[in-house]
């Protein structure tokens, strides 16, 4: 940081240097005239001789070199040990300590960070969500989630699920990827099949339900609390039901799953009785409004 923020100082330095260069004043005379040390005036004159007649800016007063800077040999040793072990800064520091090197852990971390050799932890920013509504009508709150089905080759199939809290009316669809684009595609499909307007969405903090999804969904969107799956308890129960009664009997292939989902969803929404709805079906509850 500069030692002064006076906006007039660059112009004053220029005028002081011109008194020496154009009028022939000595640096001591200019210093006494303006109240500066003559060595400062000499520095301004050298700056103007090098860069021409212009305002002389205020430079940072930060020291060019720290008095306790690590020796170059020790810095090279830290970097070499990092490439040799390919481990964290704590491990590198412990290994150097065993070899007799005197250096602190913070110095090891700082050295690795300056050479872009330190993998920093990424902290996800929290979403500021609107308050949870008091659910009285269909569409007041629709919960969203994603089921991950792992194949033998390590790839996954992603089942997007959505459920209306008031009526338990549900929808699901399989995709090969889980991102904002597929999440928006699923929401568009769900809006078409639900017999009511969706007023608010609620999901976890998955990357497919990021701020970009919130901005493009055209529906108010809130996030559940971190590590609180019971905030989406109705949908979590539906996820278990759809896996037990449908997905577990099907191969982990998105096309095959999507061919079988519509029939099972019709059964779930129109024929399956729910204890949470006094043994009514979701469609019967929807029609009661």
Automatic annotation (TrEMBL):
Pfam families attached here?
Answer: rve_3
Q: Which PROSITE patterns match?
A: INTEGRASE
Q: Which part of the chain is the Integrase catalytic domain?
A: 129-289
Q: Which GO terms describe its molecular function?
A: nucleic acid binding
Biological processes, Gene Ontology terms? DNA integration
Q: Which domain of life is it from?
A: Bacteria
The record's annotation in InterPro entries points to: Homeodomain-like_sf, Integrase_cat-core, RNaseH-like_sf, RNaseH_sf
Name the UniProt record assigns to this protein = Integrase catalytic domain-containing protein
Q: What is the protein's species of origin?
A: Candidatus Kaiserbacteria bacterium RIFCSPLOWO2_12_FULL_50_28
């Amino acid at each position: 940081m500069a030692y002064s923020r006076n906006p007039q100082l660059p112009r004053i330095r220029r005028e002081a240097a011109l008194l020496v260069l154009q009028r022939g004043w000595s640096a001591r005379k200019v210093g006494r005239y303006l109240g500066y040390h003559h060595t400062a005036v000499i520095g301004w004159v050298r700056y103007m001789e090098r860069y021409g007649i212009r305002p002389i800016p205020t430079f940072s007063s930060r020291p060019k070199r720290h008095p306790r800077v690590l020796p170059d040999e020790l810095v090279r040793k830290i970097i070499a040990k990092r490439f040799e072990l390919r481990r964290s800064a704590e491990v590198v520091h412990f290994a150097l300590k065993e070899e007799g090197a005197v250096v602190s852990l913070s110095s090891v971390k700082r050295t690795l960070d300056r050479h872009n050799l330190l993998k920093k932890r990424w902290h996800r920013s929290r979403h500021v969500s609107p308050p949870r509504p008091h659910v009285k009508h269909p569409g007041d709150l629709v919960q969203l989630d994603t089921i991950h089905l792992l194949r033998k080759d390590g790839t996954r199939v992603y089942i997007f699920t959505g459920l209306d809290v008031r009526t338990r009316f549900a929808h699901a669809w399989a995709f090969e990827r889980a991102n904002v684009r597929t999440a928006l595609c699923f929401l568009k499909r769900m809006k078409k099949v639900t017999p009511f307007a969706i007023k608010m969405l609620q999901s976890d903090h998955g990357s497919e339900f990021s701020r970009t999804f919130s901005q493009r969904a055209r529906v108010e969107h809130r996030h559940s609390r971190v590590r609180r799956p019971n905030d989406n308890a109705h949908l979590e129960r539906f996820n278990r039901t759809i896996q037990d009664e449908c997905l577990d009997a099907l191969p982990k292939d998105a096309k095959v799953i999507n061919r079988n989902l519509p029939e099972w969803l019709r059964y779930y929404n129109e024929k399956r009785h729910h204890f949470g709805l006094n043994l009514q079906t979701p469609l019967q509850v929807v029609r009661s409004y």
